[in-house]
Amino acid sequence: MDKRGRKTLKNIENAFNALLLEKTFDDITVTDICHEADISRKTFYTYYDDKFELIDQLASSSLNELDQLSHGDPNMTNQERIYTWLTYIQAHQRLFYILFTNESSYSFRLKFTQYLLESLSKHGAFPINDTNLQFYAHGALGVVEGFVNGAIKSDISTIASNLQTLIPIKA
Fold first, then answer.
1. Model pTM?
2. Model confidence over 112-151: pLDDT tens digits?
3. Burial annotation 85-110 (CB, 10 A radius, 16+ → b, else e)
4. Do the Cβ atoms of 107 and 56 come closer than 8 Å?
């Protein structure tokens, strides 16, 4: 993709994220996104089939960024990795809230769970088997979802410390 195409995609993402601060996902239309991004509907449909594909792409990008942040620096402690991870989620809390609560939340949960399973199978400091992987992945998923939807009110440092204690991760 050329520079102009990348710029257009970033513009669409930024417009969508701005709209998420004003409206619910269900209330956002492709027309709203195009108006905010100052593009035509034809341009939008060049890159996405609909707003569901857009949010799905944002979810995939977010999971990739999370992985890079949490495993990019080999000198980080596990608690620092988890803290960085939670800070990213907090910075994108509105997006994650929508990903956990809209029509496509089942698809996102599957992607997020798969991401956690792959990460834990590489970095877990526990006997790697299906039972343990599922247990730790779904526990982490529950904590993240509780953090995003406000059910867990602890600060990021406390949550990171608790997760580090609960989930054995290789140093």
1. 0.79
2. 999 999 989 988 899 999 999 999 999 999 999 999 999 9
3. bbebbeebeebbbbbbebebeeebee
4. yes
* CB-count exposure of residue 158 (10 Å: 0-12, 13-18, 19+): exposed
Q: Is 83 exposed, middle or buried (0-12, 13-18, 19+ CB in 10 A)?
A: buried
- What angle do the packed helices 130-149 and 78-91 form, to 10 degrees? 40
CATH number of 3-48: 1.10.10.60
Pair 78, 120: CB distance under 8 Å:
no
pLDDT in tens, 36-57: 999 999 999 999 999 989 988 8
Q: Strand, helix or coil at 171?
A: coil
Alpha helix locations (H) across 48-104? 51-71, 78-91, 93-101
Tell me if 159 sits within 8 A of 147, measured CB to CB.
yes
- Look at the domain 61-166 and name its fold: Tetracycline Repressor; domain 2 (1.10.357)
The domain spans of the chain are: 3-48, 61-166
